[in-house]
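Quick question, first post here. What does this chain look like in 3D?
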Amino acid sequence: MTSTGTWGDAMAPLRERNFRYYFASRTVNLLGSMMASIALAFAVLEITDDPKALGQVLAAHTIPMVALLLWGGVVADRFPRELVLQFSNLTSAISQGAIAVLVIAGEAELWMLVVLSAVHGTVSALSFPAMASIMPQLVPRDQLQRANALMSLVRGGLTILGPTIGALLVVSVGAGWALGVDAATWLVSALLLGFVRIPRAEKTDEQPGTLSELVAGWTYVRQTTWLWAVVLGFGFLNFIQAGAWSTLGPAVAERTFGPQGWGLILSAEAIGLLLMTLVLLRIPLQRPLLYGMCGVACLGLPIFMLGAHPNLWWLVPAAFVAGAGTEVFSMGWNLAMQEHVPDEMLSRAYSYDALGSFVAVPIGQLAFGPLAAAYGFRDVLMVSGVVYALICCLVLCSRSARQLQRLPAADDVEVAR
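> Answer (accepted):
Ran it through. Tokens below.
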């Protein structure tokens, strides 16, 4: 990894017209989404104090999103991705706006929120593959890393600010009006996408069916060793992270250093991610998956320490390093996908990746509580930390993953200014 220029160079993607409007659209959209998570929780609490109710509303969003991800990948490869995102954002504005109106009017019932959340989850299945795969159409290849880093920087900052702003809106004007603001951000985001102009690829007279395109996508993933090796590895990694870190972590904190300490650990992780994003604006990843898998393996350390010796003074710096490593992987994975997967296959590849990742999360959340009850928190967490790092090493046993390099800028495709 070597330095590549000034901070002015790091901002170069913003000089691209299409990326500039997309960046503005995603920034507005992310702000609304971060606020909405808080607002929706309190909106449900206004209807019922049943602790299962919020889980039902969240599941109503997640289940159709996961179930339809592969279809969303086909749609995003078949139609212009900016139009797919526009349609998704407009539909989300309508569904979130309907929830807001119902809550403000005092007419909301739980089943209404469940149905509207399912609508939102369905269009999220469309937007995720399109959003993940549109970047190579917005900037030249030599600016992909910087463009991804700028998006990650905004996402990380709004992860910190968004919930706080959402909470302030809930307290000051109510959950319904906070959801109304979220609906407005979806609408503004869709309008900004209207200024993105991407040249249309030539279409063949005969379009293959959805099933044929899904099979073609699966065949590509299966035949691309570095791709399926990482997706398979992350099926297990996300299972461990969701169960050991996200589920058992707060329980261990409650018994030891307290909720405030757990908040410090998560904040350290977020700060590590943000600072690494700044580094990656300047320093290129020449072997994106080698550095990425080494980086994400760092999360095994705080998982292990959480079981072996849950001491706040050691866990905070370990979480900081893990956050930085996670951002290295996120960048490396996006670069590997965006540079090496053909554009006409990219959305489907991302959808198979997302399916493998999302399915593992609820399994880990459900499995690790019983495991800790049966074998003890200490042993389960220590073993999980070691296994997490070993899985990262196993992925790198794949030569194609280990040796994958960046493509030269000469292989770039035309990007509309």
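The chain is about 80% helix and 0% strand.
The domain at 7-205 is CATH 1.20.1250.20 (Growth Hormone; Chain: A;).
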